[in-house]
Amino acid sequence: MAWQLHYTSARRGPTGRAGFQFVAETPGLPDGVRAGVTPYLSYRPPPDAPPSPDDAELGLFPVSLLYDRVDGRPLLLRCRYLGRDYSGRYGNFFAHAVVAEPDELEGMRPAELWRAAHWAHAPAPEAVLDPVDELAPGAALDPEALAAWLPASGPDDPYALLAGLVDAVAGVLARGHGRVVLVADDVELVARWIAVVSYSLPVAAAARLSFVTYTADPDGAAQRLVGTTPAVWAGVRHHAPHASAFDLRAGGADGTASRFARTVADCWRGADFGGLDALGELAPLDDPAREGAAALLALCRGDADVTAAEQGAAAELLARRGPAIPGWVWRDLVPGVPSMGPGLALAVHEHAPAALRDAVLDGVVAGLAAGRAAALTPDHCDLLYRHAERLRTVPDAAVTVLTSVARRHPGRRIAVTGELLRLECDGLDDVLREVWEAPPSAGECTDLLDAHGPHPALAGLPSRTFTRLAFPGGERLTETAALRLAERVREVMPDGRAGRDAAVVKAYAAAVTADPGRAAGALAEIAADGGASRQLAGEAFTGAARRLAARPPRFRAELLAALPAPVRARVAERWTAELAGRARGGRGPLLGREMEQRNDLVEVVLRLRERGVAEPSLEAWARAAAGRWLAGRQLDARLSRSPELRAALRDLLAEGGG
């Protein structure tokens, strides 16, 4: 049910007064409706209309049909110019308002009521109006008739005009303010274009599109879609910046239309109302995802000419409305997946019904095989990595995905390596080098050997791991993980550089933990040119010598005595290099710790001489260090309980003439 109100200028209305007033209405009008309708009750003729029209001329004045909402209820208001009022003055008009409950317009566009049968052409003689039981649309503006009319609706391309108009209306609805102005001499033309736009929207969206077919104040109109005449528009001095105007006499439109607007225009060109319904089902005109909706519809229909930006919009729409996307969309998208960019293709896979995902993934792989791997982003690679086994048929794409994942997720490098080793592709060594650009930890390297064995492409990784652990000073070579790796390497790949480097690691551990004899053998093994990595062996030797320098003099002397002469000389060089500069140069005075280190090393020399072993460079240093008066007194005091060592010191100094 809907309520009616009639409004005009009368000599004597229901209230007994004269002038513009409500002269008839449906009883039971809800509170506030009359006051809500009142602001819309106005009509000014166009400025070029005859000031004193006769009856024939009155029929040419534009009829105003307004649609808006009053307190949540739809308001339909039809105004026509009557000319004279009861006193003979011009300016009278008749307004017929219909206020309905929201569900009265269910399934209908308000523009369909342009020539509806319930509109009165003159005020009712009685003050009581019947309710309108059913709002039935007029027959003039059905979609089929409009589609047949559009090709001849203007001198220019009407579909370009429609596309521009759709974009403008979409912008106004999205912003929630502003208006689109339609300019034409014939109000029938305006009404038709409003109807075309309305049919381009889903019913729910059309219900939010307020409009008026004619107003003499287009800049002050509160509606979103506003009709006026050229004379009115020409007289508007300051057009509002948020208003877009379209001259319906010229047709056409400037600028580039959006994918959504072009799709709407194409649907009208082909009288494809199913396409319009599909667009509305995916995203209405005022939805920011409308570009994605148009792109999806194009892809569903096999159109591969969809830009990357449009595909991105489609992917966003799928992510946002995945479960709400109609089933026919998923079904129709599957054949086109190979031609999609990876972002959209993966979005289809992620959000499609489970029953279709294998088919979608086949399409994704086919697209990658066709050369689309270059467009993969890190996020795409992470999604594809979940299906790494399906990528084995496209090795180049698989390499792109796997290396991307490995670079950004070091914890996945072992699993990635396994996938790479299963591929049949060239340049695998280079790819693995990129994956393992940062050497693996000892634990990772052990796990790698356990998982994949002594694969030739992995042979260099243990050596890189050992070398990294060796710096600085080899301290980390005695960690449990490093020793476990060394043991594993010697088990699975004893030959080659990795095996020799593992032997160096084991020797280092022995050198810094064993008794003097075994430590000497281990140092000699490290120093030998056995084909191990030079950096590893050098740092391991330096680190072992440094740690052994902290042992007691008796241990150190026994160690030196057991070493081959060349190795003994290297150790002696490292030990003197570890001393503070003043102690190394024999200058004083020394700090307490520096003096202790010097005295320890002099004692090592003396104990070595007791064993009948001489190290010339070390003895020369000791002779110079002990030959100074203060140093001699300090050493004499240290050796006061060791007559043999005091005697050895005197002999050492005597040999130098001291």
- Terminal residue distance: 128 Å
Strand order in the largest sheet: 2-1-5-4-3-7-8-6-9
Per the principal axes of the C-alpha atoms, what is the gross shape?
elongated
- Annotation, overall tally of beta strands: 9
Helix content: 40-55%
Instruction: Work out the strand percent.
Output: 5-15%
If you average the pLDDT, what whole number results? 90
Query: Which spans of ≥5 residues are poorly predicted at pLDDT below 50?
Result: none
Taking Cα atoms only, what radius of gyration do you get, to the nearest Å? 47 Å
Total of helices: 31
Topology, element by element:
Layout: E1 2-10, E2 19-25, H1 33-37, H2 55-58, E3 64-70, E4 73-84, E5 90-100, H3 143-149, H4 158-175, E6 179-183, H5 187-199, H6 203-206, E7 211-212, E8 225-228, H7 230-235, E9 243-247, H8 259-269, H9 273-282, H10 290-300, H11 308-321, H12 327-333, H13 342-351, H14 357-369, H15 378-385, H16 395-408, H17 413-422, H18 428-435, H19 442-452, H20 461-470, H21 480-492, H22 496-513, H23 516-527, H24 534-548, H25 553-562, H26 565-578, H27 581-585, H28 592-610, H29 616-626, H30 629-638, H31 643-655
Parallel strand pairs: 6-8, 6-9, 7-8
Antiparallel strand pairs: 1-2, 1-5, 3-4, 3-7, 4-5
Task: Describe it.
This protein has 658 residues and is α/β, with parallel strands linked by helices. Among the domains are: 112 residues, no CATH class; 209 residues, no CATH class. It has 31 helices and 9 strands. It has a 9-stranded mixed sheet with strand order 2-1-5-4-3-7-8-6-9. Strand 1 and strand 2 form a beta hairpin. It is elongated. The N and C termini lie far apart (128 Å). The model has no long low-confidence stretch (mean pLDDT 90).
